[in-house]
Structure to design on (423 residues):
């Protein structure tokens, strides 16, 4: 049997393997991207803790030659099965490719001696990549001196205002859980939460980060003499905001059931499913059923959290009289590409209800009109409709399992369905 040079190199690579166990990864927000893989110049410079999104992951072997990644963010563990380790034919370098297909992003990195270096690439944005590096065997998240007792105590709830670079502001509620210098938590907003944040208190400042294949967030703050917090928020390499927070025992965010209004007209939409086939709410299969219509995007982690909730709920509470329909508003103008993303989402999430394409995020007018609402304030948004396709309640945004209000939402959801069935 004849083997090519590439086959031989791959056999050598399999013998070397990527070491299993914990890794510490970083996204370098202010670093010029590495354009050419295999460039021998030194790209590892001194860490800048205030412009780096750190995260942790595990390499777990499924057998002698294949492995998957497990992302760590607070208490959340995300299995990432789409991982390749191969010799790049152009650079002749051992290359790791970690795909997040639902979010249409990818990490591509050179591997050598317990170190990965490369980029996190966001495919749906033009030429958007952030330099990435990871080191094996490092279990910490932020570099710094960790003490048993911190002088900065931030445990609890914080009324927060974020100010973006253009002057726009939005409110949030920070929920932080501190043990010594270790810190976890999240921010709830009126449109959704920032999911599982993890970090620590270092030398009088708090640091929190998350990376899940879609979000790449970094929060930093210090405490002022009046016990308020002031800090910065980075989302990827482009977005920056400042934030101020004060302790609170109240939730001043707008009611999620009051933010989006219906026109009062019955729903009568028709959209293509993931296979391009038209599906209408007036189709016979939906006759005499109550409807839950989820406005979502495959690119949206909060939408994924809500989808998991819906699947789990109806698995535990089967209901023949209720139909669930997800309507994706996607980031691609190309219809075929958007349908492909919806199909991946449906397959990966093991969804058995209809998933339809509503349109493009940059042009929401048609889907807004078809859904008889006054706008899309947030992804996701849930519409509850009666047997006659008339919307009776709308829930805007989704504060999921990382937040303290998630259990309340689950109870509210059951109450809404009970009331829907009575009317």
């Amino acid at each position: 049997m004849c083997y090519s040079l590439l086959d031989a190199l791959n056999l050598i690579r399999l013998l070397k393997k990527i070491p299993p166990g914990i890794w510490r990864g970083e996204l370098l927000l202010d670093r010029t991207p590495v354009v050419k893989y295999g460039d021998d110049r030194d790209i590892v410079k001194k860490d800048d803790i205030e412009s780096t999104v750190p995260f942790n992951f595990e390499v777990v072997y499924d057998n002698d030659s294949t492995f998957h990644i497990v992302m760590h963010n607070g208490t959340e563990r995300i299995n990432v099965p789409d991982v390749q380790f191969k010799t790049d034919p152009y650079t002749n370098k051992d290359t790791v490719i970690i795909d997040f297909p639902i979010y249409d992003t990818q990490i591509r990195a050179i591997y050598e001696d317990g170190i990965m270096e490369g980029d996190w690439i966001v495919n749906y944005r033009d030429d958007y990549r952030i330099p990435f590096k990871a080191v094996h065997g490092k279990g910490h998240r932020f570099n710094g001196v960790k003490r048993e007792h911190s002088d900065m105590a931030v445990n609890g709830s914080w009324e927060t205002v974020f100010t973006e670079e253009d002057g726009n502001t939005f409110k949030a509620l920070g929920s932080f859980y501190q043990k010594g210098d270790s810190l976890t938590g999240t921010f709830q907003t009126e449109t959704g939460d920032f999911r599982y944040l993890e970090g620590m208190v270092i030398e009088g400042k708090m640091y929190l980060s998350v990376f899940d294949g879609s979000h790449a967030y970094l929060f930093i703050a210090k405490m002022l003499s009046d016990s308020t917090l002031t800090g910065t928020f980075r989302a990827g390499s482009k977005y920056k905001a400042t934030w101020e927070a004060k302790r609170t025992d109240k939730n001043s965010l707008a009611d999620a059931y009051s933010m989006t209004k219906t026109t009062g007209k019955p729903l009568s939409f028709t959209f293509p499913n993931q296979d391009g086939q038209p599906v209408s709410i007036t189709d016979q299969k939906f006759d005499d059923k109550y409807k839950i219509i989820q406005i979502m995007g495959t690119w949206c982690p909060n939408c994924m959290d809500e989808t998991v909730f819906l699947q789990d709920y109806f698995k535990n509470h089967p209901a023949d009289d209720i139909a669930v329909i997800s309507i994706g508003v996607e980031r691609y103008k190309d219809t075929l590409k958007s349908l492909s993303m919806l199909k991946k989402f449906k397959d990966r999430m093991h969804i058995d209800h209809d998933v339809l394409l509503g349109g493009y995020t940059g042009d929401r007018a048609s889907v807004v009109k078809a859904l008889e609402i006054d706008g899309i304030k947030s992804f996701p948004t849930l519409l509850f409709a009666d047997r006659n396709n008339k919307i009776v309640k709308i829930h805007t945004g989704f504060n999921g399992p990382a937040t303290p209000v998630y259990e309340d939402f689950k109870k509210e959801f059951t109450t809404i369905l009970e009331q829907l069935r009575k009317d």
User: Anything to note?
Assistant: The CA atoms of residues 221 and 318 lie 45 Å apart. Confidence is low (pLDDT under 50) at residues 5-9, 11-15, 33-46. The helical segments are 5-16, 301-316, 335-348, 365-370, 406-422.
